[in-house]
Amino acid sequence: MKEGRFSRLGVMQLQAALGAVTFGSVPEAMQQKLAQMWDKYADPLMQALEVRKGERSTSLQRDLQNRAEKEITDITAILTKLQKSILKELEEPQVEQLTLFSTPEREQFERNMNSLKARAEQIPRETKPLCTEST
């Protein structure tokens, strides 16, 4: 309340007011004065609270959206890097040492290579839904 009129506090003003709060009891005279003014200022105060609630909600939604977009970008980058790493590993020529492996070892090596190929093929399908969610 300023000069007998209700005026909304800005965020910085509100933080300053909250920082100045003391934990003693409010003097009786001030309590009575505020009680007398309540009927006059209750509606504007509730309207101001509703406006602030809307502003805060919008701000939080924007922050969450920004965070989600950043996480999508980060995850997509990590998966793309993983895919490139797998493909690079798969492109390297097979070492002739495979002939030194026993049959079970060669079979395991082949299973591993097939798993890597399958994983590299899955990554674009995993990142595509992420990219569509961010738009």
The profile of the biggest β sheet is: none
Which structural class best describes the helix and strand composition? Answer: mainly alpha
Global Rg = 32 Å
Count of DSSP E strands?
A: 0
Strand-residue proportion: under 5%
Query: Are there runs of 5+ residues with pLDDT below 50, and where?
Result: none
Task: Report the order of strands and helices.
Answer: HHH
Number of helices: 3
Overall mean confidence score, pLDDT: 87
Helical percentage: over 70%
What is the terminal-to-terminal distance? 44 Å
Shape: rod-shaped
Structure overview:
There is one protein chain. The protein has helices at 11-19, 28-91, 103-133. With 135 residues, the chain is an all-alpha fold. Helix 2 (28-91) packs across helix 3. The longest helix is centred in the middle third of the chain and has 64 residues, at 28-91. The chain is rod-shaped. The mean pLDDT is 87.
Quick rundown:
The protein is mainly alpha-helical and 135 residues long.
Keyphrases for this structure?
single chain, 135 residues, mainly alpha, 3 helices, 77% helix
Question: What is the secondary structure topology, with strand pairs?
Answer:
Elements: H1 11-19, H2 28-91, H3 103-133
Helix pairs in contact: 2-3
